[in-house]
Amino acid sequence: MTVRSPLYWDGSALREMSTAQVNQIVDRAVYIYGSNPSANVSVVSSGGNISPNMTDTRMTAGAYSTRVDRFPTEGETAEPGTVTVTYDKISQSNNSVSTPTDTNSKAYPVYYDGSDIRAMNATDVFDTFIDPAIDDLVDGSDQSGTYRIHTSTSLSGHTLISSTPVFTDTRANTGAYTSGGIPETLDQPTTISNYYLFRTNQGSAPSFTAPLQIDSSNNLQEYSGSALNSMLLAELRHHTVNTTGSRILYSVNGTGNNKGSGMVNTKLNGGGNYQTRFVNSNDYRAQEFPNGTAVTVSTWFLRIRRG
Fold first, then answer.
1. Sheet-wide strand order for 283-289
2. Per-domain residue ranges for the chain?
3. Per-residue pLDDT at 106
4. Are strands 220-222 and 302-306 parallel, antiparallel or unpaired?
5. How far is 163 from 155, CA to CA, in rounded Å?
6. CB of 264 within 8 A of CB of 296?
7. Is 182 helix (H, G, I), strand (E, B) or coil?
8. What was the pLDDT predicted at 250?
């Protein structure tokens, strides 16, 4: 790895950038990536390629029993059951991005090699700016153009990708089951939490010291803000989808850093609430309803990594 010290004009002389000044450009790269990210996450109706196994489970009532001579005992009455719902609504797709070109060897900032001023090559740019920018993008925090999970449809500094939740935690609605309703509908759920996909907005543009580049007349000139943005964005978009070890990859519960709220699957843990109903002398009914305390069965995380 070769990290260069780009040159800049301080108003009176050429200077090598400090580490802090280089980091400003890294921050600028992270910021500008948010204007047009190449690794994208979306909400689909089904068949999502990074969330095939998220499941929500909840308790249901057991089937009711009836006798003509007496109430069925608890042992004769069916135990509560479980409903499992699979969510596979999160999918990653990458843009097709060509390798940036540097036909005149003038596209990138210049540095002093000890005897001459020369332009960086693509590897220098990657090592100096792009590699640390990708590390920042996948660190798990709310970085520009990356995605996260949240528990409502609004989140400051973020854009909602879809009003369709990517996961819903449900539990049995114990208040909906009554002895007077036997036979009760087996599955009577209530929603505990919905989880939604968001993309982090760019936020405020970070300041930077403009490096120098070689112009068409072989003179040195400062990068304009737009020219530097275009160069950094092209490099980041390319490497984050094409370069093995530097691609931005999302998963659910795979390797990487958590992005936002964990998607929690909870379920009641009771053994069944045995209830009876007398209808008439030939109809004695019993049924076991969901009961117990809510416990966490599993937690699903959207995760990000480079790979």
1. 65-67, 283-289, 273-280
2. 7-306
3. 85
4. unpaired
5. 13
6. yes
7. coil
8. 98
